[in-house]
Amino acid sequence: MKTKINPLIIITGLVIGIAAVVLALNGNPKNMGFCIACFIRDIAGTTKLHSAAPVQYFRPEIVGIVLGSLIAALASGEWRAKAGSSPALRFALGAMVMIGALIFLGCPLRMVIRMGGGDLNAFVGLIGFAVGILIGVVFLKKGFGLKRNYDTTNLDGFVLPIVLVVLFVAFYLAWPVLTQYVADVKANVEGAKNAAPFAISTAGPGSMHAPIIIALIAGLIVGALAQKSRMCMVGGIRDIVMFKNFNLILGFVAVFVAVLVGNIIFGGQGNVVKLNFSMQSQPVAHSDGLWNFLGMMIVGWGSCLLGGCPLRQLILTGEGNGDSAITVLGMLVGAAFAHNFGLAGGADPGLKEGVYTAYSFAKSNPNVPVVVVCIIIALLVISITNLKSEEK
Amino acid sequence: MLKKELKLIITFYTSSEAMATERVCKDNGIKGALISAPRNLTADCGISYAAEVADKEKIEGLLKDKKIEYEKILEMEV
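Predict the joint structure of the above. Result:
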């Protein structure tokens, strides 16, 4: 069957790429205009699920994406509350995907955004991501499947969107207190204290953000478009391998092109990167090929078993899918675990006195090899034990 | 623009049911293929099976015999 191209997928990819550049132009971290994993990690930080000071902020983009999807799905009659598909396994898979993403330092979307900035480490990540998806496809072809879902109460489908909105409103109400605290810390005011219930970064990626309203609107637009087009970074590669269908991958390519062009035009302004094809000196990235590869392999494999990338899980959550909501909660807890147990990678320190220093997993994350092996074994066990019985 | 054809489309709750359908149809000489679910259909697993409309009854019978659960079976242009 030949591929029928849906122009909306290309438009969605271009809009996501443009939004990523606009957000970086307005303050989001470099090569991180959009990153589902990083932003969920920041939300885990601001809600004090972890205490990594540089990554604590309630990212409006996440709230916007879920609400954008919800509004688009409701408007077109596609919203349907359903749940019950192997929830505990989905929670665990969500956590594992997040840990893999934070070892690499980015979700599949940020991987493409990094590629558009010339970060060659992201190309290594792409190879790992593709290998992970291929492993997942092997099991899909052998009959892998999590159990089916069922219709549930409407409230079930609204739970996570409501929780996100309530927390976001609370964060917004605390915003004057938080900004005063950040200003006090930056001015070295003695005894500066954060009296708000949320944590906030005063330095590092969490302290870099576009104005709330711009971030929220960008999220809403991306959420609505991704709901309509079924944008999925995993689905793109999966569909090529399984059906020779190139529709979804065009969204992936469009994000890359839009970010590449945006970086060429706006490079150096705000936090938009100047195009630099290199493995070294890349923002919020490390140059350890092994962990870039394995981190994204876990993301690809786990997301393939889940049926969608982290962005897609947010979109499905907006569509009323309780299983994806559980997956997102798994990602939230996975992000907290990644920081609480020292699994998240860090950026290369870079040039110091003329010598380039790379980030060292051996020094900073001694538990990563054991945890990665455990996750790979867990993915294998989940893949094998969920093969349709007659095909085992 | 590719010309649209009228096809029999079957959607599933899980990808394993889609795979099983493809195998059963192949074993019984029915022409068809797994496809990414059309945008205007909501397939939970994102995968559907496309076959010739003329094979509808035969496929329905096979799915029933093999106890393969599907979500929808319909004729549409893809």
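The radius of gyration of chain A is 20 Å.
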